[in-house]
Amino acid sequence: METDRKDPLTPTLDTSNQNVGSFGNRLKQARINKNLTLDDVAAELFILRRHLEAIEAEDFRSLPQIAFARGFVINYAKFVGLDPDEIADSFNRNYPDELKKKSVDDIESPLKPMGTLQREGRRAIRINPLLVLGLIGLIILAVFLIRTISNAKDAAQVETQDSALVDDLSDSEQSAGAAVNTTVVSSGNDLQSSGSALSLNAEDATLDFRVTDTTPLTVVDATGKTLLTGEQGAGNYKLSGKAPFKVQIGNVSNVTLNLNGESIKLNDFAQNNQANFSLAP
């Protein structure tokens, strides 16, 4: 039967050879007719260029195992517009028997990898779950660090405000209030015996503070006596002394004030939610 196929004197057999001729050459010719390069086919079908070259050259030994190689040939045929079944049959007929036997017998050897293509135009995107988890972890860590830094800055600003309130006091005012933190000091006859000179327009007055949240608060009366200084917690503070009073408030929104029972609009003295003013009846 093999002798009949090679007989050049039989026209019918020549026609058959034209239909089932070299599958590699037919694939190559179809590719050329479509103005495609091997790189074009490799990029589209995700088949290594060297495997495409082996297919067109029918270099079976340079191809992966038969199952993969046959799949490559079928996909190649579909892409260039040839009958995949006819090309697959030609591939099967031409595939060497010794390679078929070796492929079947070599059960313990792993399959050859199909390979990964590097394409200039489009790239196959493969997402690594571990990489995604790592990225999420980095984002969470970054948010945590940002919040920590922000809280530290807020605490530093509060400390700076407290220092500024203390710095605004004179040396005598600071020394007078050194022993007083959040204690209310009421004035009485002992003020006159302290030796402090009163201002000509000094008069007795009462201050009522209502603090809704911890706030830096300092009050010094006309005699130079510190009635209140430092961080004041939520509560009511009633102070008596000689007016005018020097008042410093670190957070106006947390404080309400009455002078001799009359409400004082602190917002009239506030700037950036802080107030530093003198107050008299």
From TrEMBL:
Keyword GTP-binding attached: no
Renumbered residue ranges of the record's region Disordered: 1-21
Transmembrane annotation, as ranges: 127-146
Protein name: Cytoskeletal protein RodZ
Keyword Membrane in annotation: yes
Keywords, sorted A to Z: Membrane, Transmembrane, Transmembrane helix
Composition skew (Polar residues), residue ranges: 12-21
InterPro entries found in the cross-reference section: Bact_Cytoskel_RodZ (IPR050400), Cro/C1-type_HTH (IPR001387), Lambda_DNA-bd_dom_sf (IPR010982), RodZ-like_C (IPR025194)
Organism: Psychrobacter pasteurii
Record-annotated Cytoskeleton protein RodZ-like C-terminal domain positions: 209-278
Pfam families: HTH_25, RodZ_C
Signal peptide: none
PANTHER family: CYTOSKELETON PROTEIN RODZ, PTHR34475
GO molecular function: DNA binding
